[in-house]
Design goal:
Layout (H helix, E strand, L loop, with lengths): L1 H28 E5 L14 E5 L2 H4 L7 E5 L5 E8 L5 E4 L2 E4 L2 E3 L5 H5 L11 E2 L14 E5 L17 E2 L3 E10 L5 E2 L3
Antiparallel strand pairs: 1-2, 2-11, 3-4, 3-11, 4-9, 5-6, 5-8, 6-7, 9-10, 11-12
Amino acid sequence: MAKKKSEWFDWLKALLIAILLAFIVRTFLFSPIIVEGPSMQPNLQNGDHMIVNKINYKLNEPERFDIVVFHATEKRDYIKRVIGLPGETVEMRADTLYIDGEPVEESFLATEKSQQASGQVYTMNFSMEDSQYLPEVIPEGHVFVLGDNRSNSTDSRSSSLGLISYDQIVGNAVLIYWPINRFGFANE
C-alpha cells in the first residue's frame, strides 16, 4: 500500500513540475501566436501558427526587419516587421525604402515588387516628415513597423497605431510550426 501511495505521489510531483515548467516557458521565454489577417502576406499567411521568442528583447533591442509581435490594444496583438529604429527617419518613395535619406533594400519583398505592372508601386509614397501625427525622427525606445502586404496593413503609417514603444513589444516571431508544409524560420 505504501508503494502505491509513493508511486501516486511521484506521478503528482512530476505533473506539477511539468505544469510549472510549461507556465515558466510560456510566460517568460516562448509563446505561440496565430497570424490573423493578410497584413504580412506573402511572407506570413493568415492562420500560420508561430513561436514568439519573448526573451530576445529582454537582452537586445529590435533590429531592422525583425518580425515582432506587440500589443496594439489591450485586447489585441499585431504582428509586423520593424522598418525604422530610434534616431532614424523613414520614407517610401517610388517603391524604395529610405532610412535617413539612404535607400535600403527589402529583399523579402523583391518578388512582389518585380511583379507589379508598369507604373504601379507595391508601397505608396510615405514620409515621416510629411506625416501629421508622427515625429520627424523616431524617438528612443520606439520603432516604426510595416506589414509586408503594404496595401492592406494597419501599421505605423496609420494614425490609429503610429510608432511602437519597446514596452508594447511581446517578442519576435521566429518559427512557423503549422501548417506543417510551411514549417521553418520566419522570412527575415
